[in-house]
Structure formats: C-alpha cells, structure tokens
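sorry for the late reply, my laptop died twice this morning and i had to redo everyting from scratch. anyway the thing you sent over, i finally got around to it. pasting the sequence first so we're on the same page, its 184 residues, then the predicted structure underneath. double check i copied it right bc i was rushing
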Amino acid sequence: MADLLADDPDALDKIRADLVKADADRAGRRGTLDYDTAAPHDGLSAANTGWWLVDAVFKALGLDSYLRRQRRERGWLIDVAAACRLLVAQRVVDPGSKRRAVLTGPGLLEGPNVELAHVYQALDHLALLAGKVQGKARRMVDQTSKPAHQVVFYDVTNYFFAIDQADADCRVSPSCRGLCLVGL
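ok and here's the structure:
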C-alpha cells in the first residue's frame, strides 16, 4: 500500500472513483423484463424465470460452490453442480423425468444447459455425496437468520388419492360416503 501511495498519492481516490463508476455502469445495465402471461406462448422462447428463486436458494445454501469444489478436488469431468441445479429447479418448476428436465431445461431463462448423459453421470457422483450435501444444506438453514429459509411451503395439490370406503373419522365431509379426494 505504501509503495502504491509513494508512486501516486492519489491512487486510493482513483480506485474509489473507478469503483463508483463501475457501480454506476452496472446499475445502468439493469432493466425490467416484461412478459405478457395472456399472450400465447410459442414454446420456443425462454420465458420461464420462476426457477431463479429455486436457484437462489440452492446457491444461498452453498450447494453450488460445494459441488464445484468437489468437482475440482475429485477430478470429475462433468459439471455436477449444473446438473443438480437443473434437476432441482425443474422438479419445482415443471416436475417430470430426468429426460424431460433436460429437454425442457433450455426453457429456463439463463438456465444450466446439461446433456442427458451428464445428468446420469452426475447422479452417480451425487450418490457418493448425498449425506454430505444434505448435511451442508441443513447446517446452512440452521445458521441463517433469514426467515425465508426456515419455512418452505410446497403446493402438492396435484397429488391425490381416492378411497372406496367411508373412513370412520373422515374430516372432509360427513356426506362424502368414501368418495372424497384427499390432498396429500
């Protein structure tokens, strides 16, 4: 630091000015994304931004950096973190098979692009780390003071089962006569 100031006494002021300019430039590049949900979707444009929330939580839990570090340390040739991000995001945004996740993954705006073969290879690597990944996520949830990470509400109304007999303690309706659809 002393050498820097000896060569140029205004060096710190110049660095500060450069940082302020960089921040202003970055702020100037921000904008809004408009999407008309009433307009028909052609299926070709990447319009799904809902996965960003899932990805932000994935990264806030430190899973992205942990899996990237594991890749470097273990010498894996595939991007396990990208495959995991894709599978987790698609499981929440558009549940389906792993193949479907890869096929519809390009519809995630700025989402990870992963080949199906790499997804299956990543699953082998993730199986080795399953306990550690879960433990890391749990520790990060415990450490955070942000309420958004403490409770997760997940809509599972698309899962149901039908019963063919009345249940003695049916709480849905006494008149259902065993034909109730009960959400899980």
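Residues 116-143 form the longest helix (28 residues).
thats about all i looked at so far, will dig more tmrw
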